[in-house]
Amino acid sequence: xxxxxxxxxxxxxxxxxxxxxxxxxxxxxxxxxxxxxxxxxxxxxxxxxxxxxxxxxxxxxxxxxxxxxxxxxxxxxxxxxxxxxxxxxxxxxxxxxxxxxxxxxxxxxxxxxxxxxxxxxxxxxxxxxxxxxxxxxxxxxxxxxxxxxxxxxxxxxxxxxxxxxxxxxxxxxxxxxxxxxxxxxxxxxxxxxxxxxxxxxx
Length: 202
Prior knowledge:
Blueprint: H1 3-19, H2 24-31, H3 35-43, H4 58-61, H5 64-74, H6 85-95, H7 103-117, E1 136-147, E2 150-161, E3 167-173
Antiparallel strand pairs: 1-2, 2-3
Helix pairs in contact: 1-3, 2-3, 5-7, 6-7
């Protein structure tokens, strides 16, 4: 039974106890579960986490001190020079050939010990917040459009505000006999901070 199924079962047990049979013994008999589970469901709607029984590792026991010594030394070494689980297993085979242990066993133990020693990078999420009108993403590209019955090449300006996510699009026309930009008015409230570079909206 997975955790989701157990949560649903707990809800059924609680509902039956409150609105059905009304006794712990009767609920346990109806659902075919132990009375201890019914008591747990009445006390808390969320099932308690499953207790993992500690497993003995007689083969790995002789190599624990050796692995810990390597990991303790890695705490002072540069990140790129630290041992991987595979490298530790290779050293274990070379320096302690009498210890016959599988690589997956060493890998699991090393991963656990690295977390305990703080050698594993913890993923950190930083919320992004931007001031209004402070930052934006801008892109330029070329496009052809028919303006006034004439096909003209436009240089399109697209801006996205980082604060609001709003987008503004404009275009600039460059006459063939002029090298300078011909700017027209920009009609977008999100482009106030970029008005010197913006042009009429499309």
